[in-house]
Amino acid sequence: MAEKTRSTKAVGSASRRPKAGAAARFTRLSIIAPIFNEIENLPELYRRVTAVMTSMRVDWELLLVDDGSTDGSTEAIRSLARTDAHVWPIIFARNFGHQIAVTAGLDYCRGQAAVIIDADLQDPPELIPDLVAKWREGYEVVYAVRAEREGETWFKRVTASAFYRIIYRITDVKIPLDVGDFRLLDRQVIDTLKCMRERHRFLRGMAAWVGFRQTGVEYKRVARKAGVTKYPFRKMLRLALNAVTGFSYFPLQLATYLGFISAGLSVLAIPVVIITRLIGHQAFFGQASTLIAVLFLGGVQLISLGILGEYIGRLYDEAKGRPLYVARETPSEDGAPAGKRLQP
Ligand code: UDP
Ligand code: MG
Most C-beta atoms within 10 A of its C-beta, which of 135, 138, 242, 259? Predict the structure, then answer.
């Protein structure tokens, strides 16, 4: 395993941006794939990435981040790493989630640029040369835009589409529409992202927040090659909440708006009640109207408290300052074989 020692030389010059046609300076491209129970997709992913990268004739590395798989993916990753020096395993101690797995890949990658790709082959590795071509034109972030999606339920499509549009409206950074994590990031962007250690991560938002020159390349998102989605509704909702709370105060301000609206309505109601009383009618009949008003306002208050809770919980998580992930095995930087140590 000694030849698997990482060269730190490549990193030293890594933070410079390539100029058009600067292929010679392009010494390494990193491919990062988060893996959570993808045993059926791994061989095909490896085969297709290898084919594409070989045809590109650049030095490359494939970081396979095992996010607590239980289906034997871990062993499969290890055995790939044993036979091919391009493959670097990062093995988590448990499932930490897709966004954290990608973060670990960014932490350990050594290329002048890195491509983040799903392991289920919904993101075609064959698009990598197109992403790299844009990067060579001088763009620091090249994201892949989902022009078409197939093989996904209408529920997923509708919620995903609504999600991108709501996020676009209410957040302060302009996160491009219909764009997932399949993208190429320049070393400068990677280094900036590495400094952003927030716990509840939404990498697309973070990559947009960073700035730099960004562009998109369209592609057709095909169905998952094998297996089932590892993003059940619960995880999708959590990601959406991370996106909203991470990039917007709008939900917090919502309580203020609702407060003003209900206070305004009650002020308007005062003369109405007085006038109806003066002309001899009863303003309200029965308890139902009172009950409805009490329940409505009680509901609004509880929802506002819940929203506050979301932000406070996130604050609490940040305050604890735990590591983002715990890795059982990471690529070693000091020449020792892949060691058993905690993440940086
Ligand atoms: N993934 C992961 N950890 C998780 C969930 C997903 O590493 O907790 C990986 C998964 O193996 C895949 C990628 O993230 O490579 C995208 O997941 P998936 O395809 O299930 O999401 P979808 O495409 O359905 O949104
Ligand atoms: Mg998928």
Answer: 135
